[in-house]
Every structure is written in C-alpha cells, then in structure tokens.
Design a protein that fits this description.
- The protein has 373 residues and is of the alpha/beta class.
- It folds into 2 domains: 130 residues, Aspartate Aminotransferase, domain 1, CATH 3.90.1150.10; 224 residues, Type I PLP-dependent aspartate aminotransferase-like (Major domain) (Aspartate Aminotransferase, domain 2).
- The strands form 5 sheets. The chain has a 7-stranded mixed β-sheet, with helices on both faces. The chain has a 3-stranded antiparallel β-sheet with strand order 8-7-14, with no helix packed on it.
- A hairpin with a 2-residue loop joins strand 7 and strand 8.
- Helix 2 runs parallel beside helix 7, helix 3 packs across helix 4 and helix 3 crosses helix 6.
- The chain starts with 10 loop residues before the first strand and ends with a helix.
- The protein binds pyridoxal-5'-phosphate.
- Pyridoxal-5'-phosphate binds next to helix 3 and helix 4.
Length: 373
C-alpha cells in the first residue's frame, strides 16, 4: 500500500448515479412484453410528460443525446449565418453550429459567472447574425434578461445550451423557460442521466411538433418528409431508466448541494483557491464544483491537478482548452486570444473537483486536505 495515497480507489470528477438494479427489472419486463422498443413508445411518452411536470415547463422533446438535440434545435428555428456563442464550454456547443453549416462567433465571458458577457454581445452582431447560443455554465444562470433584451432589439433567436442546468430554478421558476429553446443533456456524467440522452424544451406545441418530425428523419406522416431530419430518437430502455431516475433525483441533488457546502467551508480560508459565488435568486443543483487557482496559491493550477492525480483524485479542467483554441475553430476572427481575455484567464485557473451523490464526506475532507497542504 502506498502510504502517500490516502484514497484507495480512484476518485473521478463524477460518478454516474445508479438506482438499485432490481428497481429497473420491472421496466425491462414491460418493454419485453410491449415489444415497442423505440419511436415514441409508452415510456418515451410518459417520460416527456413526467419531465415537463418535474421541470415545470410546457413542452419537451426527448433525444438520444444532447448533441443531436442542439443540432436539431438550430434546425427547428431555421437558424442561418452567424451565431454568437461562448468559447468556454464543452465542444459540442460549437460543433452543433458547424454541423448546421453555421459560423460560430465567439464572445468573451464574464469571469465571475463564466457565462457570456452581455456587454460584449452587441459589438459582435453583424447583418449575418441570426441567433445567440449561450451556455448556463455549471448551471449558473446566464443574464437571461439582458440577453433577451438584446435578442429582441436585433431580432435574434436565443437557444440556451442548458446541459448543466437540469433542475435549476431562477427567481422561483425553471431556468429552462428562458430563450426560444433550451437544450438538456442526460449523459451519464450529468446531474440527471438516462445513460445517453437529451431533450429540447420549447414553449409551444407547434414547435414541439416540428422538433418531433426533425428527430425522426423529417417524417410528418407515413409518406411525407418535410425536412432533412436526423435520427435523434430516445429508445424505450433509456426512457424507462429516466422514469426510474426521476424517483431518485431530488435526493441526488440534495446530496450534491450538501457536498458543495462542505467544499466551500473547507476551502474558504485557503489563499489562492477561489470558489464560485452562489448565484443570486437561484436554486443550484451543484452539477459541478469548479474552483479557480490564482497566483496566491503555492502551486499552479496544473501542478495542483497533477498532485491530486498522484493521490488518485481525478479532477478535470472544465473548460480547458477553450473551444476557440481547437484546430477547427482557432483560425476564425472571433477566436483570437486578444478578443477573449477573460475566457483565457479562467481556462487557465479552473479545476473542477469531484462531486456526485455517492461521494463520502471523508473523501471531500481528504481532497480538501490535499489542496490545503
Ligand atoms: C454534456 C454537454 C453537451 C453534450 O451533451 P451529450 O448528451 O453528451 O451529447 C453539450 N453541451 C454542454 C455544455 C455539455 O456539458
């Protein structure tokens, strides 16, 4: 045994939440009995309804994953030309634009929220701009009021990448009600997972109808194909699992919130380790626990990252590198480092610490002790 190694097993940044296996068996038996495996089956229908109720939204269309949902959301609103977005996100945000032949225009972030800085959006608007795709990074609400105001002024659509925002409420209402559409991911690493999965939240039945056609090759009926849609459908197995997960989601989120509070109190006095301020008027789900390593800390961010790794703690640098620094984006005008100073700084400071419902208090203490020296 390595005595430098206080944790026996590797601790990853996240670990998917799984309910007891025996609870899932009856769902599988039902699928075997129905022999309805995909294409808007009974569990799919039930999950759409149940998620609308849980999240407090009007309409929701399930998808096989969040990336296909992003790609389809852009198609549903017939977005063309340029789309303003953030370089500080998971790469799928910008990839969904390229998959639609759109041009991402990167705009810098506010270093306090890690979200698009509304003060910098207007100067990036051109005659080709048709939409804004902001990200509620780590589940922190974007400045939704300012973004909507800008969108209204310039006649732009707003599609939120809400992959981190499942269950987040802002001013007492679902954060997913803002913008024209919001896109969720139910990937294994997210707060709420269906192994793989995703959804588009939309305000009206007509848009939901169009989205449902687009996720099924564009079929409007047996013989009518209205657009070059993709196959984005969620299967019955994933939908059934989603229904079971919903029974456990409140407990899972509460546990995450407790862990976040524990981290905050253990790190509050550590010079050079800055936790993210809790956003105002927000019910947070603690989908991530980012900390920012400044010059006052004795190690660089990457040195801390390696130190944790030596001790079997696999923290992650979300989001480093910036999307705008990746080969398929870095040649673009808006990707220039001088235009994105805050994103650059934050990407150099951030480290996301392990957070998931099964993480033990003892492990949190071990991790924070390593950070405290
Ligand atoms: C996870 C994630 C996605 C992609 O979702 P998938 O379900 O994995 O396709 C998109 N955007 C952000 C910000 C994400 O974190």
């Amino acid at each position: 045994m390595n005595k430098n190694n206080p944790t026996q097993k590797p601790v990853y940044v996240t670990q998917p939440y799984l309910p007891p296996l025996e609870e899932f068996i009856p769902y599988l038996e039902q699928i075997w009995e129905n022999k309805w495996l995909t294409n808007n089956g009974p569990f799919h229908q039930q999950l759409e309804q149940a998620l609308c109720e849980y999240l407090g939204v009007e309409h929701l269309a399930l998808f096989a994953n969040g990336t296909l949902a992003l790609v389809t959301a852009l198609q549903a609103l017939r977005i063309t030309g340029e789309v303003i977005t953030t370089p500080y996100s998971f790469v799928a945000t910008a990839h969904s634009l390229l998959w639609n032949g759109l041009t991402p225009v990167f705009v810098d972030i506010d270093p306090l929220t890690c979200n698009l800085d509304p003060d910098k959006i207007e100067q990036a608007i051109t005659p080709h701009t048709t939409a804004i795709m902001p990200v509620h990074c780590y589940g922190n609400p974007c400045n939704v009021e300012r973004i909507q105001q800008i969108a209204d002024t310039y006649g732009l659509k707003v599609i939120y990448d809400a992959a981190h925002a499942f269950g987040v409420t802002y001013k007492g209402e679902s954060l997913l009600k803002h913008g024209d559409l919001s896109v969720l991911s139910f990937h294994a690493t997210k707060v709420y997972n269906t192994f793989e999965g995703g959804a588009i939240v939309c305000p009206d039945a007509k848009t939901k109808q169009r989205i449902d056609y687009l996720k099924n090759f564009g079929f409007a009926d047996e013989v009518t194909v209205m657009a070059p849609g993709i196959n984005g459908k969620m299967s019955e197995v994933n939908a059934a699992f989603g229904l079971l997960q919903l029974k456990h989601i409140d407990a899972a989120i509460n546990r995450r919130r407790q862990i976040a509070t524990l981290y905050e109190s253990a790190l509050v006095d550590v010079k050079g380790v800055v936790c993210m301020p809790e956003p105002a008027e927000t019910y947070r789900t603690a989908s991530y626990f980012p900390v920012f390593i400044t010059e006052e800390y004795p190690l660089t961010r990457d040195e801390l990252y390696k130190k944790l790794k030596v001790h079997n703690i696999y923290a992650r640098r979300y989001f480093y590198p910036l999307i705008s620094d990746m080969p398929m984006y870095r040649g673009m005008d808006s990707a220039s480092e001088v235009k994105l100073p805050n994103a650059k700084i934050v990407a150099g400071q951030v480290i996301c610490l392990p957070i998931y419902p099964d993480l033990q208090e003892k492990q949190v203490i071990e991790i924070t002790n390593l950070i405290r020296f």
